[in-house]
Amino acid sequence: MKEIEITTRLGNELSADEIQTAAVKALGVSPKMKSQLKYRILRRSIDARNDILYRYKVEVAKPDEVLQDYVLDEYMDVNDAEPVIIVGAGPAGMFAALKLLMRGFKPVILERGKDVHARKFDMAKLSREGVVNPDSNYCFGEGGAGTFSDGKLYTRSSKRGDIREVLHQLVRFGADPSILIDSHPHIGSDRLPIVVENIRECIIGHGGEYHFDSRVTDIVKRGDGSFDVTAMSSVSETSTTYNSRKVILATGHSARDIYELFDRKGWEIQAKGFALGVRVEHPQSLINKIQYHGKYQPYMPTAEYSFVTQIEGRGVFSFCMCPGGILVPAATASGELVLNGMSNSQRNSKWANAGVVVQIEPEDFPEYAQHGPLALLQFQKDVERKMFEFTGSLKAPAQRMMDFCRRIPSTGLPQTSYHPGAENAPLHELLPEHVSLRLKYAFPQIGNKKMHGYYTNDALLLGVESRTSSPVRIPRDPETLEHVQVTGLYPCGEGAGYAGGIVSSALDGINCAAKI
User: Fold this and answer.
1) Cβ atoms 347, 417 nearer than 8 A
2) Inter-helix orientation angle 502-515/91-103, to 10°
3) SS3 letters across 359-425
4) Which CA distances in Å does 391 have to 123, 360, 384, 398, 403?
């Protein structure tokens, strides 16, 4: 058995004959054995450094050797099993529930938002009319924030667990099998809803429960060690209380009311660094030209990019890059302005967008120290409100890239994919100086040293990108994964400060469920 690397030109699918021919040489066997040799494609990536190539990593084996396929555990019937309450139906919550099914526990999911299809109507109303439903939007609702931000699955680190469990589960529920081998896999916001719906049907079909329109308002630990979890319906304005011995808290990075609940109860939370900046929108044709060195052809995958640099002691980096994507409003409350990006599976819009953000730590803004562990949460709110107050609507304050760096007003703005629209603004003044100055130096540096052509006035900056991760951490014991003060309560995923994306959140949910 051996791992080999094979390259092909983009547009050419790697054939079995090509793989087995390469395997003959790698394994040192007779060419007569070629058709009997076994193989499995492990990874596929694009190499655009010179010629534009697909680079494959393939495991090959002789006929008498065994290639071990990854096999998922089966789900159990949990209709009469012990319940575990899961707060939140994003990646952490859904994959925690699937793991509980495998281990014989009954997941009871409380989701403040709507199911993945009903949620779309609220997002459409948000974009077209500027009406924010605080429980159903781009952040809240079945599937979580990742469902409508391209479905990027870029986490490949194995330190959190075996990512194959996440990827194979997604394929089981309808994702394209290519995500198992692509180095930068994505599902697409047009295809993810059916995957999310299939997961729900599986959980309910095996005895689990889903309760939508159930925003958790209180968590009480009883004398017998169990929890009463109270959830409010925004439709009926009635409350329901659920009880279980274990609770997985998978609320996502924007559930500010949960942090405030912990603060009121005196349960430990901590201020945590996060990143804040702008959404940068380029013509996708320009990014294709840059990344493929002028060799882009229509059959090639839409080009993406990522970068990280250091400016005056703080990281500046691209975040959630959406090739062939669009910009969307991601506010979770009235009077706030937040942007996010998304792409459909074909990534075929004429724009490329990415967050370009600056790392922020609690010590950077001592004037917020009075808010204790909610310091950066309050800072985040204030920046989002400032953006909204400038335009008075969900229109985004915007400025051309070179104008922003030169600190001058823009004369007109390029067309944008952002449906509420953009308003000409001195974005360099609206952003905190800590952020604005570092972006000012970062954009020319990236354009001059890493991506020639990136620094251009054809690029539009829109504010603000502020929901990169949670500004609060809910601390937990590293061994048991329970809250450091409240045994039986498992802070989980992005909302607890332990993940950053679909795959890492799903793995964290799996890990918490496995501990239970």
Assistant:
1) no
2) 40
3) EECHHHCHHHHHHHHHHHHHHHHHHHHHHHHHHCCCCEEEEEHHHHHHCCCCCCCCCCCCCCCEEEC
4) 20, 25, 12, 10, 19
Q: In which region does residue 83 sit, left (phi positive, over 0), alpha (psi from -120 to 50) or beta (all else)? A: beta
Order of all β-strands in the sheet with 314-322: 308-311, 314-322, 351-360, 274-283, 460-465, 396-400, 422-424
* Alpha-carbon 369 to chain mean position: 29
DSSP, collapsed to helix, strand or coil, labels residue 257 as helix
Tell me the C-alpha distance between 254 and 267, whole Å: 19
Mean pLDDT confidence for 287-302: 93
CB atoms within 10 A of CB 306: 12
CA distance 455 to 448: 8
Spatial contact of 300 and 310, defined as CB atoms under 8 Å apart: no
Looking at residue 392, its amino acid is G
CA distance 148 to 91: 12
| Alpha carbon distance 408, 427 (integer Å) | 10
DSSP 36: G
| pTM of the entire predicted model | 0.95
Dihedral in degrees, nearest 10, Cα atoms 280, 284, 286, 292: 120
Residue 10's pLDDT is 81
pLDDT digits (tens, 9 = 90+) for 121-130: 999 899 889 9
Q: What is the mean pLDDT of residues 294-323?
A: 94
Q: Looking at the predicted structure, is the pLDDT value of residue 149 above 80?
A: no
pLDDT 10s digits, 479-502 = 999 999 999 999 999 999 999 889
Query: Which DSSP category does 294 fall into?
Result: T
Whether residue 98 is predicted with pLDDT greater than 70 in this model: the reply is: yes
